Amino acid sequence: MIYSVSGTLTHLEPGVAVVECGGVGFKCLTSMGTQRKLPNIGSQVKLYTKLNVREDAMDLFGFATTAELNCFNMLTAVSGVGPRVGLAILSELAPEQVALAVASGDSKALTRASGVGAKLAQRIALELKDKVKKMGVSGEAGAVLSQPSGVMSAAGNAANAVSALAVLGYTPSEAAAVVAKFDSALPTEELIRLSLKEMGSRL
């Protein structure tokens, strides 16, 4: 409903940022990851948003990047993961770290977030990994692997990066195309970060 808000940052407190647009202040619930990227109060800012409507309230969640918004949407689609837990995870882990944890099956990394126990972390990793499989990532990752690299681990890094980007909601084909632009010998997390930056620049 509300894709983004752009205006003056007028108030900041832990978990909350207020952006004034056209005389209206929008209270956005945010992760600590987003708060670390925000400018000083009084500066211009743009947040990508998700409106969550409940019977007793309407909450607007704001994110500094589309990658974080996409990650939030994927996390909250998992049964048992509400918006508050989604924010807690993104307060501890960057989107690329969440995606990498899911793609590699490292559910323990997700337990760093407040309110995320071992069982919930395993469910998140399992459900999102299954979603990636249904999207047919393996075939697209294979296209990246077919490029000459000479190093199996480097090829694996590229494949893992494609899988991780799919966790963030990107289609396998666009993820594979962007990852292929970078040196596959780079660490997986760096490939994901560079790919997110490249895709973000197109917006």
Write the layout of secondary structure elements.
Elements: E1 4-13, E2 16-21, E3 24-29, H1 32-35, E4 44-53, E5 58-63, H2 66-76, H3 83-92, H4 95-104, H5 118-134, H6 137-145, H7 152-167, H8 172-179, H9 188-200
Parallel strand pairs: 3-5
Antiparallel strand pairs: 1-2, 1-4, 2-3, 4-5
What is the CA-atom radius of gyration, in angstroms?
18 Å
- Using the alpha-carbon principal axes, give the shape: globular
Helix-strand sequence: EEEHEEHHHHHHHH
Structural class: alpha+beta
Number of strands: 5
Q: Mind summarizing the main beta sheet? A: 5 strands, mixed, barrel
Instruction: Give the strand order, joined by hyphens, for the main sheet.
Output: 1-2-3-5-4
Low-confidence stretches: 136-152
Number of helices: 9
Terminal CA distance: 18 Å
Q: What is the helix content?
A: 40-55%
Strand content: 15-25%
Q: What is the mean pLDDT?
A: 84
| Total number of distinct structural domains | 3
Write up what this structure looks like:
With 203 residues, this protein is an alpha+beta fold. It has helices spanning 32-35, 66-76, 83-92, 95-104, 118-134, 137-145, 152-167, 172-179, 188-200; strands at residues 4-13, 16-21, 24-29, 44-53, 58-63. The protein is built from nine helices and five strands; from the N terminus they run E-E-E-H-E-E-H-H-H-H-H-H-H-H. It folds into three domains: 4-63, Nucleic acid-binding proteins (OB fold (Dihydrolipoamide Acetyltransferase, E2P), Beta Barrel), CATH 2.40.50; 79-129, 5' to 3' exonuclease, C-terminal subdomain (DNA polymerase, domain 1), CATH 1.10.150; 137-200. The protein has a five-stranded mixed barrel with strand order 1-2-3-5-4. The two termini are 18 Å apart.
